[in-house]
Amino acid sequence: MAAAGQAAPDTVELVAMFVRPRARGRGVGEALIGAVIGWARERDAACVHLWVTETNKPARRLYERCGFSVTAERQPLPSNPALGEIGMIRPLDLGT
Fold first, then answer.
1. What pTM did the predictor assign?
2. pLDDT digits (tens), the chain, 96 positions
3. 82 vs 26, 27, 52, 59, CA distance in Å?
């Protein structure tokens, strides 16, 4: 499951993503991100942005494999302000 929305004319925000544990490691996450990137390109967005919990190392590695880079953005996790989130961005001029 992935959810995204157009945050600004040039930016699509990947707001949620979940892969059932038994399906992880089988390319499902990459396929979901690919679908969001395709959707963003259809809308002429320049980038896809997301927030990831600092402690979620598997998700961060997935996003990095898919071309996302860490930004300087930081914020408390809305559902648990004791945890932090980091911003990540992926320009859409990378070809895939």
1. 0.91
2. 999 999 899 999 999 999 999 999 999 999 999 999 999 999 999 999 999 999 999 999 999 999 999 999 999 999 999 999 999 999 998 555
3. 32, 31, 14, 19
